[in-house]
Amino acid sequence: MSKHYGLMVPGADTVGSPLRVFAPYDGELLAEVDTVDWQGADTALNTAQQLFEDRANWLTAEQRIQILQTAADLMGREATRLTDIATREGGKPLIDSRVEMARAIDGINLCIQCIRTAHGTEVPMGLNAASMNRLAFTQREPIGVVVAFSAFNHPINLIVHQIAPAIAAGCPVIVKPANDTPMSCYELIQLFHEAGLPAQWCQVLSTTGHDVSEALASDPRVGFFSFIGSAEVGWMLRSKLAPGTRCALEHGGIAPVLLAEDADLDTAIPLLAKGGFYHAGQVCISVQRVFAHRSIADKVATSLASAGADMSVGDPSLESTDIGPMIRHRELERVHQSVMDAIDNGAKLLSGGEKISASCYPPTVLLEPPADADVSCTEVFGPVICVYSFDDIDDAICRANALDFAFQAAVFTHNIDTALHAYRQLAASTVVVNDHTAFRVDWMPFAGLRHSGHGTGGIPHTFADMQIEKMLVIKSPSL
After folding, report:
1. Which residue of 17, 310, 335, 403 is most buried, as measured by CB atoms within 10 A?
2. Overall pTM surpassing 0.85 (yes/no)
């Protein structure tokens, strides 16, 4: 039986048909979610803005810590239920959704640490005649209303990354979850409210259309806009932000991996297979382009194909499933067409390439697809790994850097000089040595470059971005 999620915008009215949420694996109707038009979004913004302007009643650091601690405890108690919801609506296999749930709880605790360790700085005075008899220091204050648009692929942890730092920073927050996966967000925010966060401080809404979402993001009452999703939409929305609105955009990458001649393939292959096929490749830093030295390229490709063939694809709720469905049927068709186009233009298919069902696509490995193929120059966002051979590592680096997207990259080698050379030369915000590109812990900086994003994610960095440093200057003859 499907579930109904009502509005989480105090004072707003439901408008239009409810949003219907279907399981990507088998099409089961999971939920209906009430939606708002611009009037409802305007109500949410007014509520949030009034809270921010009422400085005397801002949530204290003690209150915020207590709310976050209680929320983390509630999430721990509800972990099995929340994980099952995320698995059903997002299609990520149960084994991986459990990891996501644990990360989300840890993320809440990271936000508590941010509050406990946040501080301003002293600004030197008394250095010249103009600054004599003065003391100056900064303190942190919330930046204003936070509006967050989230993505489908990590429906619990991404919401935590966007709303928990806002709560920790003292910002009223309005969150719009992905239409494909809103259930986890609504359930999670209900727990925050149960933990003591007033409903007005974190409002959740699903809109009647893109025009409402665009108007919400671009409203001058927004102090900080957080977006996780496609580059096309993210850059468009950034261009429409009101003057003064700060933002962070997290888009996709086309992650390159370099395998030097001395790479340990016994270690590399399982890592690359996991990094490329995990969550059906629907990860912004998923392994996509593997550049292997010519002496090992064929072995790398056939080994990846074998590793993918050994993975179980299907029902994400089963303990035995390694790879679940893609989020939408049309996304599977898009991926399949890109694979077929690459094969038609000379790529060698080593595994996969045939649809398992309308929702599931197998781990697919292509050897030497053309440089101008979609799989080589655009984000596949599906379970596809492309392998290319090289003779000179600088040529491979040049090819890796040739695209407009730059996020995380990796190099496998036992030679420290090779690793450092790749680190210096690769266009990436993070270069991982002897691990896959999808490595991430939630306290590290996480930043897309070029078309891949704007600003720096990671909970402590988001927490800092959602605040301002406000300076106090005191003049006194006693100083």
Report:
1. 335
2. yes
Residue 242 half-sphere exposure toward CB, CA atoms < 13 A: 15
Around 265, how many Cα atoms within 13 Å sit in the side-chain half-sphere?
17
C-beta neighbour count of 76 within 10 angstroms: 13
32, β-bridge pairs: 4, 20
3-class DSSP state for residue 376? helix
Give per-residue pLDDT as tens, 138-181: 999 999 999 999 999 999 999 999 999 999 999 999 999 999 99
Query: Which parts of the chain register pLDDT below 50?
Result: none
Round to whole Å and give the CA distance between 382 and 337: 12
Rounded CA-CA distance 368/381 in Å is: 19
Q: To 10 degrees, what angle do helices 79-90 and 183-194 make?
A: 160
> Domain of 157: which CATH number?
3.40.605.10
Residue 250 is a catalytic residue: yes
**Does residue 183 contact residue 260 with C-beta atoms inside 8 Å?**
no
- 407 by Cβ neighbours in 10 Å (0-12 / 13-18 / 19+) ranks as buried
pLDDT of res. 1: 74
Q: 364 lies in a domain?
A: yes
Say if residue 337 is in the same domain as residue 208.
Answer: no
CA angle 338, 339, 342 (to 5 degrees): 85
Domain count, the chain: 2
The rounded distance, in Å, linking the Cα atoms of 234 and 249 is 6
Determine whether 377 is an active site residue: no
Assign residue 323 the CATH number of its domain.
3.40.309.10
What whole-number distance in Å separates Cα of residue 174 and Cα of residue 162?
10
Task: Please report which helix (H) or strand (E) contains residue 374, including its range.
Answer: helix 374-377
- Per DSSP, what are the bridge partners of residue 173? 146, 202
**pLDDT 10s digits, 342-366:** 999 999 999 999 999 999 999 999 9
- Catalytic residue selected from 89, 100, 187, 250: 250
Q: Strands, DSSP E only, in 99-185? A: 122-123, 134-142, 145-149, 173-176
Q: Round to whole Å and give the CA distance between 363 and 275.
A: 11
> What is the domain range of residue 300?
255-433
Map residue 219 onto helix, strand or coil. coil
Tell me the backbone φ, ψ of residue 96, rounded to 5 degrees: -85, -30
DSSP letters, 88-122, are HHH---HHHHHHHHHHHHHHHHHHHHHHHH----E
